[in-house]
Amino acid sequence: MSRFAIAIDGTAALPEELARAFDIRWLPLKVILSDQAYVAATSAADAGKPGHITTAEFYERIRPKDVTPETSALNIEECLSVYDAAIADGVKEMIVLTIATELSATYSVAATTAQQRQDRARIEVVDTRSLAGGISLIATALSRLREHGGSFAEALALARTMAGAIQILAAADTLEYLRRSGRVSGGAALFGTLLAVKPILEVANGAVHPIDRVRTREKAVARVKELFGKRTPEGSRIHACVLHTNDPERARTLGEWVQDRYHCVEYYLAEAGPVIGARAGPGVIGLCWYAEAQA
Questions:
Q1: How many structural domains compose the chain?
Q2: Among the four 46, 47, 225, 257, which has the fewest Cβ within 10 Å?
């Protein structure tokens, strides 16, 4: 049985060591700072490469209030480079997991590019209806299926089943960055800015929705826990990822709470990279999960 490849786009939140262990490839995405485009680094080897930017460098660069980060979708040439590298490695089948189409043109580019290589490999692009840790949790599920001898067809069916099924709740410091990027309505961002509240966000059906608001960061975390608890009985077997944008301590504390109260079949802490940081801003912590029975 041939070993198929798995690729995720640069919005995914997956630690480098896990991407390597699960043999998951990346489609590069870019951020734009002061009219200069940078590829979001996905490994330590990328650090220092011309035209690349690490997560730490990104957050340092956006500290000044007059710096407005933007994002840039993958182009066909960059996508072909990833596909051709996989084909050169002997890959005949590949599943590419992308951010929801409502949030990026990545799916469209990846799917169009796949057609250009259909004579050399079967490349199936799946819109995960998600982002960040939602993409990563689907990717690790596919990787485990692959390691247990699952076929390409089985993995593709699983990816399509899981698309849109990963739950994501997040607490943000502000909606300002999302407002700038057009990922939430101006009116929704306005209530967060004027009332100085901390928005609670949900990613559902390929969109980011503000679902609540509280006054402080502490209350925001408490509200995420409360909503999570209402949806998931304590002690449930779950696959979970806690992510953050430049806020590791709060994320670590949330992760400890999850692991203490639930049976985490899979758990990891991940910093969302520059592409998510450009859209959501610093100070976001999020909880992504699905029930063990779903995979």
A1: 2
A2: 47
